[in-house]
Write a structure and sequence with these properties.
Elements (H helix, E strand, L loop, with lengths): L10 H25 L10 H16 L6 H4 L5 H23 L4 H33 L6 E6 L3 H14 L3 E8 L3 H9 L4 E4 L3 H8 L3 E5 L5 H13 L3 E5 L10 E6 L2 E6 L7 H22 L3 H13 L5 E7 L5 E7 L24 H9 L7 H6 L3 E3 L6 H10 L12 E3 L13 H13 L3 H11 L8
Parallel strand pairs: 1-2, 1-4, 2-3, 4-5, 10-11
Antiparallel strand pairs: 6-7, 8-9
Length: 465
């Protein structure tokens, strides 16, 4: 908000100008090399090259390549540039092939010369720009950060600043309110105490702070108001971590209503009808393919015979689980335990070296083959290919009362596999940890993430017992 205490240089705008210059230089360089017969083949038309430049420039601007991490070269800049320019070339190919006949040669020239030359020139100019801005002219000011209040969320924010800004960040210390536990928590984490809020104004000037991070928890409402007023007077930028948002943090938005900022949680991508429809169509196709491939598989027949031989009785095992909106359904699995597994103990999770488990059950659970019949649950609409793993009602009743926001995992269909499952969080593992992974999946859902989880499922984690 306030930059009066900083020599603020808009490096993102400068980087955009450098990229535009680099694209123009790349196009001109390729044309010169082709005219001089340095590069073999026909000369790429001026119209096609300009169109490529416009498409590539637009795509670059809508990627992560203008974040601080990309600017400092920490987040796969080469891969990001390559992926974006190849996509731009493919887009140009589609446009040219659709509207102009006989232009396939020009399209191939774009892929052969424009893309690699553009990547090399863009990367080189970016490196030169970063060297000039950061090392020679030193236009990037160091952020001098202080904070007030304390919580695990604030600790994550501070760590993120440290990871992202590196040497361009100095954490000066913290101010404490009247809550002694807050002061003790920040001090125990190793942060320097700058004093109480009574000396806030004096210390901000003395330490030449440029950014104040305010954690509302542990501070009184008047304290927050006072901190904001002091920051305003001394032109110190401030960030506020609002209390009450422990989950779905990436979806929190601020909307101005009648001139008043209102903080709320933005709807999940699952809320969009087209996304639910597309996910359901993929589930149906995947379930049909899964049932077609697994039903006649010799491995399944052999597994069934081994199960029956070791423990005569039903080969398939049905158990009540909770699905979307906590609707109960019967999940189907290949039986991996004795028939009397819970006769004396009641409902309990599987544990390592579980004595109730069949010998063949160990193999089935480690390879996820016991889950194959659940394709039928997916086809019926009770489950999805990917989502939070369905839990038993006996456990859910307890978790709902003891774990905040646990019911959020029931906002979508449970999955045959899931983000928590592919990270080894199955069975007798922390329900809090599983919930954290499930919420991450809900917040960041995409078709790409679903396919990524499906691939990861082919390599089961070691603790899938």
């Amino acid at each position: 908000m306030y930059f009066g205490k900083k020599n603020q240089f808009d490096w993102a705008f400068g980087l955009g100008c450098c990229d535009a210059f680099a694209l123009a230089l790349s196009l001109g360089l390729v044309h010169c090399l082709q005219v001089g017969h340095v590069l073999p083949g026909e000369t790429l038309s001026f119209r096609a090259s300009v169109l490529f430049g416009i498409i590539a420039g637009w795509m670059l601007r809508n990627t992560h390549l203008y974040t601080w991490g990309a600017f400092t070269g920490k987040r796969g800049t080469i891969l990001g540039l390559g992926r974006t320019l190849v996509l731009a070339a493919a887009t140009l190919a589609g446009i040219r092939l659709f509207f102009y006949r006989g232009s396939d040669r020009e399209v191939s020239l774009t892929l052969e010369w424009l893309v690699p030359v553009s990547i090399a020139v863009l990367l080189g100019i970016r490196i030169f720009f970063r060297w000039v801005v950061m090392d020679r002219l030193r236009l990037i000011a160091v952020e001098r950060i202080v904070f007030a209040g304390w919580s695990p969320h604030l600790k994550k924010v501070i760590q993120a600043y440290q990871d992202e800004m590196g040497a361009f960040h100095i954490l000066l210390g913290f101010f404490h309110g009247k809550d002694a536990t807050i002061r003790e928590g920040a001090a125990a984490a190793g942060y320097r105490c700058l004093g109480s809020l009574d000396v806030l104004e004096t210390m901000i000037e003395k330490e030449r702070a440029t950014l104040m991070i305010i954690e509302e928890r542990g501070l009184e409402q008047d304290d927050v108001k006072r901190i904001v007023e002091v920051c305003s007077r001394h032109l110190v930028n401030f960030k506020i971590i609002p209390s009450g948002f422990d989950v779905l943090t990436t979806k929190v938005t601020v909307r101005v209503v009648a001139g008043v900022p209102v903080v709320g949680v933005h709807g999940l991508d699952f809320d969009h009808f087209q996304n639910r429809l597309l996910k359901r169509l993929i589930d149906i196709v995947g379930a049909l393919v899964g049932l077609t491939l697994s039903a006649p598989a010799p491995a399944i027949a052999i597994a069934g015979l081994l199960i029956y031989r070791e423990s005569p009785g039903p080969v398939l095992y049905r158990q009540i689980r909770l699905g979307i909106r906590e609707e109960p359904f019967k999940i189907i699995k290949l039986r991996s335990m004795r028939l009397d597994a819970e006769q004396t103990t009641g409902a309990q999770w599987a544990v390592e070296n579980d004595p109730r488990r069949l010998k063949i059950g160990t193999f089935l659970r480690r390879t996820n083959l016991d889950e194959l019949p659940q394709f039928w649950n997916v086809l019926k609409g009770e489950m999805s290919l990917v989502g939070p793993r369905p839990e038993r009602p006996e456990f859910t009743a307890s978790f709902r009362e003891t774990i905040p926001h646990y019911n959020l995992r029931h906002t979508c269909r449970p999955g045959l596999t899931g983000w928590a499952a592919v990270h080894g969080l199955r069975g007798n593992t922390s329900p809090e940890d599983r919930l954290a992974y499930d919420i991450y999946y809900l917040e960041n859902w995409s078709l790409y993430l679903d396919f990524k989880i499906m691939v990861m499922t082919l390599f089961p984690p070691k603790n899938a017992y």
